[in-house]
Amino acid sequence: MLAPQAKASYTRWRPLLYLLSCLHATSVLLALGMWSRNSILLLHGGSALLLAPVMAVANAGLIQGYYWLYSRLSVTYVAVAAPVAALLPAAAGPQLCARLLEDERSHAALAALHRHMTAFNTACVPWHAALVAEHPPSLPQACREVNLYISLLLGVALPLVAATHLQAAGGRQQEAFAAHATGQAQQGGGSGERRQLDGLPPPARPGCASLPIQLYFASCIVWCGSSLASLVWSPSAMGGSPRA
What sign does the dihedral 74-80-85-89 (CA atoms) show? Predict the structure, then answer.
């Protein structure tokens, strides 16, 4: 008697519970990154290539992307909930950067990572590369920019682009199978015709050629937005943080 009611209640509240679970995991990772004595932010080893995944774990962008990619929630809900969840890493960015920049090995790695990301993402907005070359950001500003870019790209843009693409591909595939079935129903009848229809190849699966292009343009947009946001971010929040 209670099982159907419990299942119905869980189904009704699942989107909210999922968001709360994501926020809890994000809070834990941010706290560990900012205040742990053995913070993961210290594991980059002075390498720009290692610094990117280290920041993706520390600012919870990676875990948020995983949450939304496998949420099986509607694209509309993810489009609202993912930016809400991304507010936590964005707000914690100054403290994360203050913690990262305490390690002098991170300075050169961060500058190199910022250069690489600028070169990768400014193909569709060349004016941004000229702006960065004319007004190079300080290390705290570059860190805030990279942190915001990683968290928004992995936690918001990637899940939304992938979910939208998969939803559109699924709809096209259903239409193709429906048209295929309609053709069988209209042409079916005799056994000879049936054998010919049985030999028809199934509808082709929608291609994924456009997905990398969509992801790249999303990356460019997020990078430019992160750059502009870092310019207006209050530098007074870059103070130190206590560590456990």
Answer: positive
Residue bearing tokens 């994360």: 96
pLDDT score for 177: 52
Q: pTM of the prediction?
A: 0.79
Burial class of residue 221 in the structure, from the number of CB atoms within 10 Å of its CB (0-12 exposed, 13-18 middle, 19+ buried): middle
Q: Is the pLDDT at 192 greater than 80, yes or no?
A: no
Contact call for residues 20 and 28 (beta carbons, < 8 A)? no
Dihedral angle sign, alpha carbons of residues 110, 93, 18, 153: negative
| Backbone torsion region of residue 45, taken as left when φ is above 0, otherwise alpha when ψ lies between -120 and 50, otherwise beta | left
Q: What is the mean pLDDT of residues 148-176?
A: 80
Identify residue 218 by its one-letter amino acid code. Answer: A
Q: How far apart are CA 48 and CA 136, in angstroms?
A: 18
Residue labelled with tokens 């390690």: 103
Q: State the helix-helix crossing angle for 126-134 and 105-121, rounded to 10 degrees.
A: 150
Q: Which residue has the higher pLDDT, 242 or 119?
A: 119
Confidence of residue 178 (pLDDT cuts 50, 70, 90): low
User: What is the C-alpha to C-alpha distance for residues 156 and 178, in angstroms, rounded to an integer?
Assistant: 33
CB burial class (10 A; 0-12, 13-18, 19+) of residue 178?
A: exposed
E-state strands within the chain: none
- Residue labelled with tokens 């992801």: 215
pLDDT at 184: 56
How many other CB atoms are found less than 10 A from the CB of residue 172?
15
